[in-house]
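re: that chain from earlier
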Amino acid sequence: QVLLVESGGGLAQAGGSLRLSCAASVSIFRLLAMGWYRQAPGKQRELVATITSGDSTNYADSVKGRFTISRDNAKNTVFLQMNSLKSEDTAVYYCNVVGTNRGWGQGTQVTVSS
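^ sequence. v structure.
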């Protein structure tokens, strides 16, 4: 099972930026497609961005052009650079292997004040 530890969340003003990190404890990290997800209060968890083992990326329409997902295979870490933050980006952010619904970490809280 993959152990995932998210960090980098916090309080930001609308229009600001945050950079999230997710460290994964798995030897085959470089072979895995990874995703960032978020869950706002009272809402279901949604997929925000994905990155394949070949560095192909995909984004939800709501974050396209504002968020950038990247990875550092040497450090078994996936990142989410979030720019031009909006109040609707407020949520707990999680990372996970794409296609699984197990092994969720504790997430990192992002709060955007308007």
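The beta strands are 3-7, 10-13, 18-25, 34-39, 46-51, 57-59, 67-72, 77-82, 91-97, 108-113.
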